[in-house]
Design a protein that fits this description.
Oligomer: single chain
Distance between the termini: 43 Å
Bound molecules: 2'-monophosphoadenosine-5'-diphosphate
Number of helices: 10
Structural class: alpha/beta
Shape: globular
Amino acid sequence: MSTENRAACVIGWPVKHSRSPKMHGWWLKHYGIDGEYRMEEVSPEEFPAFIANLRSHGYVGANITIPHKEAAFHLTQPDERARAVGASNTLWYENGELRSTNTDVEGFLGALDAGAPGWEQNKDRPAVVFGAGGASRAVVWGLLERGVARIHVVNRTFERAAEMAKLYGDRIVPAPWEDRNKVLEGAGLAANATSLGLKGNPDLDVDLLRMAPGGVVADINYVPLETKLLAQARRLGLKTADGLDMLLYQGVRGFELWFGVRPEVTPELRELLAQDIPKS
Ligand code: ATR
């Protein structure tokens, strides 16, 4: 496949905060590809027309960020992962058709595989996912794909956890927020998919000591790089997967689809992105 003069972009409103240009720009340079990755600030009103004309804007595909992920899902041909999450963050053309996927699933699984190799040995123990929003759906679907037997979804608004059980079936056990420590008893994996622990927000205050020995702890938040939750996990000797790795691994599939090379997540690239993120 010729990769000459190909361009992709990230579409958001606003989009300036996106770290994707840094990541894809690094890969383009690293692999010597004559391509570009740009930012496009597009309002919700303009978004459908922009997507319908993505190719004439000069793009072979795009990343989609807030607030357009659900609109992108409805305006494209989604794959199984996008359908499971109900939102799309990566678009590409296939046989003339604009397709989409949700690479947050791959990002979460990639970070687990990198940070806690062998984590799937815990899949017969219950897992606990905190949160029941869009990010949580990507996390829960990833765990289901990899065969985790039972997932407690704990959410401040219980109804949203119950909705997830309706959506994904009886491997999901919804739990009220008050039970967040109780469900950790003997758990093999815990994942924070809430905005708790993000800089400026309160921390997710749970007792990881209740988890099974060899338990694994993941956090979707990457500001700061090491959330209080991950610091607690590390002190207890538990393996961890962090939000920055999730961001990096979610970028892999898009780059591969647009530029024809499956890029590697390296310590050098991670360091580049970590540079302007507070450590703790
Ligand atoms: P996203 O798409 O990133 O998941 P979201 O749908 O707004 O964003 O979800 C944010 C998650 O963080 C939700 O699970 C939310 O709980 P509610 O469903 O009850 O709103 C959770 N969250 C945010 N602030 C919280 C807090 N102070 N305590 C507990 N959970 C919180």
